[in-house]
């Protein structure tokens, strides 16, 4: 995937700030253990909840039970935002990934996503792939897997030089 250069928004950045490098953003996405997903309820109200996510081939993936609010919301409206970063105002970089989430059913891709979960989160997050879904190895519960196709990414750098960088994909 070719990533365009990030543009810095001078309205929300220090005068000396430079755009956050894309490699910094991907490193944050790969290292972050907790993400916040925002979906849209059928009545238009937002729904936000924490979850875990992995990045495979440049795309973010997360899973949820088919009856959970986020899955129900995404079935009706795939618009979604994944957010991660630091809870500090003094340091770190927050990343916001906006796009459309869709259920993934391709077995080979699901196997690679399951492998990424095990590598990133450990054995307690082991899944088998059955009939286009994740099945938790120990608990047996089923989950849908969503892939987020990003259209806009923001990085909010904090600390000595506040900077807001945007990528349109």
TrEMBL record:
<keyword id="KW-0560">Oxidoreductase</keyword>
<dbReference type="InterPro" id="IPR052019">
    <property type="entry name" value="F420H2_bilvrd_red/Heme_oxyg"/>
</dbReference>
<dbReference type="InterPro" id="IPR012349">
    <property type="entry name" value="Split_barrel_FMN-bd"/>
</dbReference>
<dbReference type="Pfam" id="PF01243">
    <property type="entry name" value="PNPOx_N"/>
</dbReference>
<protein>
    <submittedName>
        <fullName>Pyridoxamine 5'-phosphate oxidase family protein</fullName>
    </submittedName>
</protein>
<feature type="domain" description="Pyridoxamine 5'-phosphate oxidase N-terminal">
    <location>
        <begin position="25"/>
        <end position="125"/>
    </location>
</feature>
<dbReference type="InterPro" id="IPR011576">
    <property type="entry name" value="Pyridox_Oxase_N"/>
</dbReference>
């Amino acid at each position: 995937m070719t990533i365009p250069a990030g543009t810095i928004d001078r309205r929300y950045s220090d005068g000396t700030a430079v755009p956050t490098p894309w490699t910094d953003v991907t490193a944050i996405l790969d290292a972050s253990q907790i993400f916040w997903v925002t979906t849209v309820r059928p009545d238009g109200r937002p729904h936000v909840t924490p979850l875990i996510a992995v990045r495979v081939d440049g795309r973010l993936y997360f899973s949820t039970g088919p009856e959970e609010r986020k899955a129900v919301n995404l079935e009706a409206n795939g618009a979604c935002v994944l957010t991660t970063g630091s809870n500090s105002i003094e340091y770190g970089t927050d990343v916001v990934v906006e796009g459309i989430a869709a259920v993934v059913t391709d077995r080979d891709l699901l196997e690679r996503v399951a492998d990424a979960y095990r590598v990133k989160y450990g054995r307690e997050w082991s899944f088998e792939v059955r009939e286009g879904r994740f099945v938790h190895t120990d608990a047996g519960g089923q989950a849908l897997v969503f892939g987020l196709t990003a259209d806009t990414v923001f990085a909010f750098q904090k600390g000595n030089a506040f900077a807001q960088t945007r990528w349109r994909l």
